[in-house]
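BACKBONE GEOMETRY TOKENS
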Amino acid sequence: MERLGEAQRKSLIVEGWRFLPHSYAIVNQWQLLALSRRSDIDLKIVDRPLLSKRWKRQSGLFEPAEEECLQRLEIAEPQDRADVRLRISFPFDFSPSNSPLTAVFGTCEHQVIRKDQLPDMQAYERLQEGPPPENVKAVTPSKWSAEGFYNAGFAPDQVIVVPHGVDVETFRPMPDLRQPIRQKIALPDDGFVFLSVGAMTGNKGMDVLLRAFAEVSRTQPQAYLLLKGIDPLYKSSAFLAESMKVLSSEDRERVQSRMIYFGESFRLKKMAQLYQAADVYVSPYRAEGFNLPVLEAAASGVPIICTRGGPTDDFVTDAFARKIDSKKRSGQYEGQETFRVEPNLEHLIALMRSAMEERSWREAASNAGPAHVKESLTWDHVVDLLVRRLFPNSG
């Protein structure tokens, strides 16, 4: 990968979260690690306040050498200036900084910037009057999410679309771990495991997945459902319990007998190991900004079933993913029009059944996914793209 020369070194201040399992924090930390490996960027950071008093910073999410690198990063002083200041936290702060360019990372899962994504009503009202000045740009990980910024009045050249990546040393096929991991979490060796990871909120389509699994499990006694939530941040177990109510009491009992749920925060190495227990990763989402677990699963050699029409269309291929038919729907949230993709339940059931039956497809997909990610979607790849978009006149 060609990089900026020594004479073209650029300064970058990144404002964000560290040592937190929130998706924005995970993305920020992987990007910081990739940026720290570059010789063409002078990097400093600012730790942004946590969004909730319930949130607690955690050590041990990354491997010791990575955590040490993150700890060693230089903290910017309030008066420090840089060529670019990148903010990657929540709520979105579009106010110009003291740098020539201010870039604000954000995801518009529903293709709109909601009122609750901004610091206050004054910030929302300013956005209604017009987009931020030209020296403020949005950074977002998918074409789907970019539509939210365009809908808010951002000019095309004010929106930088850069996908997320995967650390392929962490998330990779590890077939030797399949049996011991399954034994550790009480999954039978011959069980067929569908895995899904996320906050368990409605936009993840958990109710659709539970209905589909209930139907598949009627005739497939070897089918199991493995779910990973994030209780410390989102109370995922409560969202999952609410989704379970869509099932009849008979279906609920059967699903619960074949379901394993983890809600605690996993360090990333343990998360990578969890993917090894799965036969297929399933994400019947309705609204996402990117859906990083789908990409991590692909890198780990797990075949994918995910919704068609959303952000995953940007980075999955037919070689390792089967897409659930969907229809784009509009809705209302506090007076704003929002959009989602509604996955087709019957098609999801059919895809889950066919995935169980077609071993040859699973084997081909388990090879194609890691190869695809390694070719163009590592963190070094996507951070290289990010740097080129943030410093367009330097390469």
Summary: The CA atoms of residues 181 and 277 lie 6 Å apart. The first helix runs from residue 23 to 36.
